[in-house]
Amino acid sequence: MISDIDDTIKISDVHERKELLRNAFCRPYAPVPGMAERYRAWEKSDGARFHYVSATPWQLYVPLADFIRSNGFPAGTFQLKFFRWKDQIFFDLFKSPEHYKLMVLRPLFDRFPHRKFVLIGDSGEKDPEIYATLARAFPNQVSHIFIRDTTGEAQDSARYQTTFSGLSTNSWQIFKQPSELADKL
Predict the structure, then answer these.
(1) How confident is the model over 49-68, as pLDDT tens digits?
(2) Are 113 and 84 in contact (CB under 8 A)?
(3) Would you place residue 125 in the very low, low, confident or very high pLDDT band (cuts 50, 70, 90)?
(4) CB 136 within 8 A of CB 117
(5) In which band, very low, low, confident or very high, does the pLDDT at 14 lie, cut at 50, 70 and 90?
(6) β 50-57/142-148 pair status
(7) Are 123 and 174 in contact (CB under 8 A)?
């Protein structure tokens, strides 16, 4: 399982910059209700292992790891964005996560060519587009894509029809509540 963090399992409000900053630095982290239970169900029924990927700076690893543990999410590995205050890398923090996530996920697929992956993200930024790109590049490895709806776009919206064009409609799902997802993969 490759899981995004912000607005997929942790309420962040990425599309509202002020709220994002408040949720990242001022407020206690809040889980998306029901996601930890769904992840634990997949861990138990399917033996799923988790890799959490985010464009969040690596300096927030400790509070994120604490969030994962204290909210009952399965343990997993993390891939967070390299960030420094000192140079041009500072401005990379505000770039779209698309290039970053593709750059860190492609080697994972290459390293494990016989492993099947389920990709879980949200609609707030580019997770659908990133995951569809990976599904096309690694069709034998991506078994399913789940996208949590944070933008109010229906599964039959123009965005999703374009993004997932050419992929089986059984290979991706838009959901609002974790209860809409199957208990077993």
Answers:
(1) 999 999 888 888 999 999 99
(2) no
(3) confident
(4) no
(5) low
(6) unpaired
(7) yes
b (16+ CB within 10 A) / e for 46-62: eebebebbbbbbeebee
Q: Per-residue pLDDT for 94 more than 60?
A: no
What predicted TM-score, i.e. pTM, was given to this entire model? 0.89
**CA distances to 37, 65, 96, 149 from 153, in Å:** 25, 31, 20, 7
Cα 66 to Cα 29: distance, rounded to the nearest angstrom: 10
Q: Do the beta carbons of residue 39 and residue 50 sit within 8 Å?
A: yes
Q: How far is CA 167 from the centre of its chain?
A: 19
**Tokens at residue 95, please?**
């770039």
